[in-house]
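Key idea: predict the complex, not the pieces.
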Amino acid sequence: MFEIGTTKKSTPDYVATRNACKLCAPLGASVAYKGIRGCVPIIHGGQGCATYIRRYLISHYKEPVDIASSNFTEESTIFGGGANCMAAIENVISQYQPEVIGMATTCLSETIGDDVKSYIKNYRDLTKRKTLPHFINSSTPSYQGSHIDGFHEAVASTVKSIAEGGEKAEHINIFPGFVSPEDLRQIKTILEDFGIDYILLPDFSETLDNPIWDSYHRIPEGGTPIELIKKCGSARASIELGTILNKGSLSGRVKNNSLATTAAEYLQESFGVENHQMPLPLGVTNCDYFFETLSRITGKPVPEKYTKERGRLIDSYVDGHKYVFGKRAVVYGEEDLVVALSSFLNEIGIEVALAASGGESGKLKEEINKYCPENTSNITVQNGFDYEMIHEWCIDNKPDILIGNSKAYYIARELEIPIMRCGFPIHDRIGGQRLKHVGYTGTQELFDKFVNELIGYKQDNSEVGYKYM
Amino acid sequence: MIEILKEREKQVVTKGKDEAAIACGKASIAGSVSQRACVFCGSRVVLYPIADALHLIHGPVGCAAYTWDIRGSLSSGPQLHRLSFTTDLKEREVVFGGEPKLYKALVSLIDQYQPKAAFVYGTCIVGVIGDDMEAVCRKVSREKGIDVIPIMSEGFNGTKKDGYKLACDALSKLIGTDDKTEVPEHSINILGDFNLAGELWMLSEYYKKIGVNMVACMTGDGRIDDVRKAHNAKLNVVQCSGSMIYLAKDMKEKYGIPFMKVSYFGIEDMSDALYEVARFFKSDEMMQKARELVKNEINKLLPALQEYRKQLEGKKAAIYVGGAFKAISLVKALRLLGMKTVVVGSQTGNQDDYNLLKELCDEGTIIVDDSNPNELSEFVKKTGANLFIGGVKERPIAFKLGLGFCDHNHERKEALAGYEGMLNFAKEVHASVCSPVWKLMK
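Result:
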């Protein structure tokens, strides 16, 4: 009764996106802003943008996510959004008293040529308020790139507008990318166990995963404080997780965007902060590289706790290897997560059959080849894919398991194969914000879940329903 | 003291304290975190359940991505509405125009999915770059031989309500295009039910039992061919008046079909809906059947409800939903469970709705239009509510503050309409209010 779209196959010159495997840029920017202490995001555009994005994020994080909107009307579209922009700033300040206001533009405000920077300046000139929040402004039209571009754009804008230079100090910067709050907590624990002084940006480990409250917090606690972001320029090094980031050159742009800078690249160029770009620490190989880099930069040894975690993880790989070997997986979602997951699957003997993303960097193939040395030639890599393309590919190629966010559930259901949920969004289960992907223990959790999905699938479909594996 | 944005002060009244009428129907203030969406959203949610139509969103990716399979509107047949199609405009099209892409997208989608008709939604940017959507739709319609209906639903061009109106206009274009089909004498259209969790199927069963035939439901479990012949019905029965009243008025004007506003939520309103229809057709037999049906259902239902009422008596509820008509029914249904409504509001209510609410509610009840998380959290705290009824965006506010939450929005998976729905509602309220987890939050 609920089968979808098993009709005629699509034509090669297909031009509509069917069930997009990406979201729009202001969503990513909003998440990044949520990781700055005292920050309220304002989306400069129509009201629906903020409401839809809030709804989408709330369904994943199960947390209040306040994002203001400048509520464009027909007049603002014709005469410019200046008045609405300034009214929005004023009303957000009076309601929230934020430390920071993070502005993100939309397709609408970008297309009519709104100059948010000048609106902010006008507001500063006109307001009678004595203390004003810090303003960050990101250009995030939804016709350019995906939510991931928006995320990195906001992080880079934050650093560009706040970071200061100065004499090199002991601390390091860490730019984690669009990971889960639990991942952020894990990264912080690792750095603390190392005894490393660090600045993590953004840090939405608390703001998007709050404990219960006595009263409503207009701005949730947590986030990276401005004072720390200022010091990004004097760090001894930066670690940037992800190797594609917002560096893609396609994404439908008229001009080549390969010159877009990330936060860490900006810091390297402007303040000489050495940048270490690497895949997400997911899988033994990537984790090893992450830990080695931390150790090399700081001269501190890897704490024994992690040597043991690593040992346990490999021990479990041994326990589980037979159940996963040769299985064919489809990995999809954000490009950097797809690269890291593929590399992890590659090291446990899973065949990554399809690695797909709605992102359009044009770099996915290159990165997958680099990080999946075991079966490079067998992997179909697709940039700019949507879920219906994945769906059709799966019907033809019959994979054993899907790995990625919850949105491909309908494909797994139709094909009667398991899906292992990870990444963003998880809309049909609780706990998306607590999913751990990074570090040896993050990999451990994924591995256990993954093997058990496959074992469980076999058991459920067996004639007898055995008691031992 | 509850802090309310100055410009919003008139949009909040307390019964027994404020004499002035509530202000409503206003655009949201810039910088407020309104719970409302946009014009596009209004059109999209109303037309969404039409299951054999192609719904193509002309714009950048966001608008389509956030509305993919968003409603729990079930279809008894095709599932085409649950796919999300977009032209996914890029900078290239924004600069050079999106018409060629729209054309190609429409043609290839129609070839692949063979829909009965297509709706094309224009988003903010389409209004700005000046794509002639209507011309493209006309061309494709001519070439493919199906109706391709443009909906100019630029998000900035009004409120969600304006989007409802555009959706009604689109339906209006289809209505009356099938004159061959004969319908039985006692035939109605159901307007404004979206078949969430199969609610329409329950309702049409009730109507069938009393001898009433349904021509079309707009738009729950909707089909293009049903919409085409909707003008043959004798009566339009309108629920969720906020979204469908435009169409009801339009059909009255064009085809002389009278309409009545009903609600299917709660025992009283559900029963009234059946009685009113029987009264309209002036059929004693129908009235007799309606009475019997109501009697049977209530006899089954009341003892079951009594159990819940015992535990819920005296608890307080806050309601914040999309349409005010729904809020009115909720107040009554909660009363049936022994609960008192202390805060009630909606995103899009009109003056009549709010007057009715004011009449219905107890002294001290806060009534609010187009509220936001700050206000809502203050209201529930001040009034000591035990339960919050709302949608996805209100849920975390309630949960964070340690009060039960009951989802009464388009995502719900349990039917809440009709008599069975009332029992489901009681179960859900009970599970929300009486769970032991709240004790740990003290």
